Amino acid sequence: MELYDIVMKLVGPVQPAGETRADETRLKNMKELTKLIDKLLFEVSAAVPAADRPEASMKAIGIHAKKFMEDVAGRS
Question: Got the DSSP string for 12-76?
């Protein structure tokens, strides 16, 4: 099982169903999912400054984080 599948199984459905009671639950699920995403994005963004490090291993992590954050910003 992939990490994504595990997270979504724990969070539950988030897509609207068009039924009030189901959508109330899905809204709660969406709030939990976005709270998790916010924390994960913070972790990624905190690694971005390492892109300027002289150490190759740290620099690689920082560059990957920076590119990811740029890609995310470009989608909005």
Answer: ---S--S-HHHHHHHHHHHHHHHHHHHHHHHHHHHHGGGGG-SSHHHHHHHHHHHHHHHHHHHH-
Model pLDDT, residue 25:
98
- The whole model's pTM is what? 0.88
pLDDT at 35 over 80: yes
Q: Which domain holds residue 25?
A: 3-75
Residue 1 pLDDT exceeds 90: no
User: Structurally, how many domains does the chain consist of?
Assistant: 1
Cα pseudo-dihedral 55, 60, 64, 65, rounded to 10: -30
